[in-house]
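Morning run. Coffee first, then this:
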Amino acid sequence: MTADDKKIAMYILIAVSGIGIYFFFFHHNQQKISFNDAAVRQQAKADTALEGNQNSVKEKYPDTINTQPVRTDALERKDKANHPAVKRETENEQRFRIVGQFNDDELLQKLKDMLWNTASAAEKDQIAAELTERLRKTDNPALLESISELLAYNTLTDDEEIYLINFLGKLGTLDAIQALAALIPALNDGTAKEQLAQVFLQMGYSNWRDDLFAKNPHPLEQAWRNADGDEMIESAVAKAIAGIGTENGINLLFKSLDGEVDFSSGKNLLVADALAAANKPEAIQILGETLRKNPVSNPTAYASGYALAHSSNEQAVVSLLDWASNAAEEDSQIAEAWLRTALENNEQAAAVFSREAAEKKFDNPAVADIVNSLLYQFGR
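And here it is:
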């Protein structure tokens, strides 16, 4: 074999070896890819089966499967302790403990300091809450008088006056109410006086002081007298007295009527409108009895009928029906007006009216016809 033949044979051997090596690696990779692909498909099937089993168990036993990461109690307590809301609450509790350690003089000085210096709403509320608790538990006229005297300072801003007015209103003791009454002629028109009117008005919706307002003289009597001529405060105090609904309060308003059956304006209209705010059963009963026992020409009876017609208490229409069953013929027109007003202003009154009117007997045929007509229109 010549040298050229040997070279050719060597090249052929190298080529064959290269082809063999190529096919070896190609076949090996194909097997690997096929194996990995099969493994992935197998894992996917397993995951699908597991998810299906979990969903099935969740449907049957919703509380047994929890897919959320498991957290230890220690970690949860740590997270809660670091939550901003919890931190603020802790700071508030610390402030309350500090405030509770002040004696009365220190607490009063703290209140003065806050009025004339910048303080957060939370700090002011804490001082007010501590003072309220102390003054409700222990009679301390000197401390309350010192707080009330702060309102005499001409340097107070409207916000500072409103803060003190709200404090006295929330305190709600007899002395606090008298302090508010003394403010009426002292305050100039403005936001502080408007807030004072709101504080009086809110007393008519508070139930926790019913025993206080049943006393004589009525705790709001001085405020009612001081408000004379100040229509905004006068209306608020009158509505508070009617809303509280005690007999002594309603009689106080009755005494303010001017003796004329003219309710188109003035004090009579103001009192009648205020009495319409009477919503408690005891007050409705007083108004009903006053209407039944007196002729409509009597201002107290007319004011009572007007108030019952405009009351939000559906039982007011029952009192009107009781009166209408014995009403004189000359009262037919006013009976229709009051009953119609009651039914138009109060949807719940219609059902009560239908039930009660069907069982009533009326002395006056004209009133009976009116009631039948109203039953046809409003009956249920």
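The chain has a mean pLDDT of 78. Good start to the day.
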